């Protein structure tokens, strides 16, 4: 598990939250969701939606379990941080596609939406 802590010049650190690595050593912590993982009643599958989106990118839909959606979310957002791209951008969407394809291969089967 990679944990990336971004500390810009204003000193306000940002990172993905992991219970296994509390960030309280940095000072007061405020937690906000980077995405919403929701269950789509129509498709009966899970999806990852970014703030400001009406619907998830197609590549962020079609997860069989919440855990698969959460794993994809953490992997995708971590790689966005490493690449210095915003998830809600064209490069962010392309990175989501790449991460999804690699994640699906790791599962040994395709997860489609």
Number of strands: 3
Question: Order of SSEs, N→C?
Answer: EEEHH
| Widest β-sheet, arrangement of strands | 1-2-3
Structural class: alpha+beta
**What distance separates the N and C termini?**
27 Å
Q: Output the number of helix runs.
A: 2
Overall, the morphology is: globular
Largest sheet features: 3 strands, antiparallel
State Rg.
Answer: 15 Å
Low-pLDDT stretches are 107-113
The averaged pLDDT comes out at 86
Name the beta content range. 5-15%
Helix content: 25-40%
Task: Describe the model.
There is one protein chain. Helix 1 crosses helix 2. The protein is built from two helices and three strands, in the order βββαα. The chain starts with 35 loop residues before the first strand and ends in a 6-residue tail after the last helix. The C terminus is likely disordered. Helices cover 32% and strands 12% of the residues.
What is the topology?
Layout: E1 36-40, E2 45-49, E3 61-63, H1 66-83, H2 90-107
Antiparallel strand pairs: 1-2, 2-3
Helix pairs in contact: 1-2
Summarize this entry quickly.
By secondary structure, the protein is of the alpha+beta class. The protein has two helices and three strands; from the N terminus they run βββαα. The protein has a three-stranded antiparallel β-sheet with strand order 1-2-3.
Descriptive labels:
single chain, 113 residues, alpha+beta, three-stranded antiparallel sheet, 2 helices, 3 strands, 32% helix, 12% strand, disordered C terminus
């Amino acid at each position: 598990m990679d944990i990336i802590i971004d500390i810009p010049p204003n000193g306000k650190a940002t990172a993905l939250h992991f219970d296994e690595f509390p960030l309280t050593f940095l000072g007061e912590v405020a937690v906000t969701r980077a995405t919403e993982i929701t269950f789509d009643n129509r498709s009966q599958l899970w999806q990852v939606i970014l703030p400001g989106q009406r619907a998830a990118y197609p590549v962020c839909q079609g997860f069989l379990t919440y855990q698969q959606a959460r794993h994809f979310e953490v992997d995708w957002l971590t790689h966005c941080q490493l690449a210095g791209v915003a998830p809600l951008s064209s490069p962010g969407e392309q990175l989501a596609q790449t991460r999804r394809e690699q994640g699906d291969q790791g599962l040994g089967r395709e997860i489609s939406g």
